[in-house]
């Protein structure tokens, strides 16, 4: 049995990715703070606050308990964005708020990566073992002042993913930092992203024969424009 755990049950990316994997035979656990979301048939909803390490660990444990197998695909689809209190001043966000957002947007991923690696070590041979972080161009572009908090989260995520990809190559554990971009490689038109594009791109990453790059940039039809 193949199992996917999606942390972040957004109505766009989370829902589309969950549906895609379920349609292709995966058992899907969809995690969110409220424990809701559009859960595909045969899947489960998991209540999880990614800012709490014990919640993340519990989400992995519940997924394995319910399906009788550890997650072999983990998707981190969480971010925290809020406008700067003072436009143009990147350090105007109160420290307590910046810390709270950073914990959700990137430090929570650190715990998810720890749990994912532990789960992958229990996955049977022949199954893909893949961690995908939902990202955006802020992870690789020069700092954006008015998107400073979100950008710092995405930079940290990229660092974690690249480190995991290098460290566990011999185990064939794969880690991807994936983002939708425009055909020119920038921000999608109107800054609108496609849930379906994410679903196609993520499914193809899991199914691909080789590791490829860790930095994945795909366009609106889900095809890869660039990888590094």
UniProtKB/TrEMBL annotation:
Belongs to the short-chain dehydrogenases/reductases (SDR) family. It comes from Serendipita vermifera MAFF 305830. It comes from the Eukaryota. This is NAD(P)-binding domain-containing protein. One of its GO terms (molecular function) is oxidoreductase activity. SUPFAM superfamilies: NAD(P)-binding Rossmann-fold domains (SSF51735). Signal peptide: none annotated. Keywords: Oxidoreductase.
